[in-house]
Amino acid sequence: MSTPLRDDAARLLDTARARYADDAEATARLDELSRRLHEPLRLALAGMVKAGKSTLLNAMLGERIAPTDAGECTRVVTWYRYAATPSVTLHRRDGEQQRLPIRRERGRLIFDLGETSADDVDWIDVGWPSSGLRSLILIDTPGIASLSQDVSARSTTFLVPEARPSAADAIIYLMRHLHASDMKFLESFRDTAAGQSQTVNAVAVLSRADEIGSGRIDSILSANKVARRYELDGELASLALGVIPVAGLLAESARTLREDEYAAFKELAALPREDREKLLISADRFVRPSPATTLTEAARRALLARFGIFGVRLATALLRRSTPTSTDFAEMLVQQSGLNELQQFVREQFRTRAATLKIRGVLDGLERVLADFPRDDVDEVRGGIERIRATAHSLRELSALARARADGLPLAPSDAAEAERIIGGKGTGPTVRLGVGDDATDEEMRAEVDRLLDRWRALGQSPLTERSAVEVCRVVTRSLEEIASVLPAVAGTPHVVLAGGPGEGAA
Fold first, then answer.
1. How far apart are CA 334 and CA 337, in angstroms?
2. In angstroms, rounded to a whole number, what is the distance separating the alpha carbons of residues 406 and 322?
3. Which residues, in sequence order, are CB contacts of 105 under 8 Å at separation 6+?
4. Residues 239 and 213 in one domain
5. Cβ–Cβ contacts within 10 Å for residue 501, how many?
6. Helix (H) or strand (E) run with residue 437 in it
7. pLDDT tens by residue, 235-245
8. C or N: which end of the chain has fewer Cβ atoms within 10 Å?
9. How many domains are contained in the chain?
């Protein structure tokens, strides 16, 4: 979708391309920035080895596409983007491209690199006809803190390069628990990705949440308590907008549930309580020979591999309470996995800000081009960068939000919390920003936005308000004015429409 802010950035790139028309390398960099500006949001999945990145990616797509073993392909950065027909293209470090055959084994893609070593591969580009990829480009990265320094370096070079902004617009960072390596990586991503805009564009995920509770049915509840404790960690709060527990294996398997698995769970749920409890006491006991069930040992091993002992216990418990259709049952498992909460977070915090996050990355990249290829005739481009940063309210919101997370806002605690909510800390929808229920009427929302406008304008104009706080008040007030501009006018109330219109940073 075209927006005034994106159009401004596109015109700035066109101006820069005209200035660098005689420089092939600079032009190639500018062309890449132009593609980035107009393509969907780039959302990378990162984390330590065995954090469950590929499993979560499959769950988000609803297809078992990404390989999850420890083969050569998991050592390479892999992009998944929408395409009408499937394709897999290998990009070598020497610049050569090679189309790979489409091969699937038990649903997953098999990347046959042939005689090419993973060390010689820059990245793999997968085009796939999945509806989930229409508005997102998902990027699977090798594990950081790997025993292989080369594997770790691939993720670090891609996500936190030294001399350029990150190639990712936002990141889902998976962790099993908060480790010093996790903090170090997130700090590097914030400092590299944010550039001068100082954006917060990461979410942390407890990706194997079922293991926190040792596979008990209430494991996700335990994981939620751990996540809330991490969210209160001031250092982590400055690096990620939230912490969400997800049972990745359950989410992937639920999204790809088969009828034979549904039938197997129904049989387990129908067993006498004593027999069922003996089977489910542990993973080892579940796959032992047992006369209590007609399910073969191989069938039970397959269930365990797909769902884990937590998923098997949960699925059996759910079917004991009711007998939904297989489709409804799969959705019940997905709901329990935490995947819906993560996808809602991505939708509210990243996808609604897609254009803003992309423009931030493009401006940082353009600034890097000016630094790497200095010329005397680019003052117009440099001035355009400064103008967009100074006037684009969506960028100022992200800067204020990052400041709120990193250092706190120079306001009283209650005012700071309200300001963070209004500028989008909890989500970008009008009801979320205003702190009203989703069922609030237009009249109620108009009344609340008018009340908040009066309060924040008064606070910003008060002689007792410090200068640093006045700037925050201006950002909050502008956010409220944009909300007011999209609300239907109530009889007798003037409807103000701001220059530039609402939602300049909308995707």
1. 5
2. 47
3. none
4. yes
5. 13
6. none
7. 787 788 889 99
8. N
9. 3
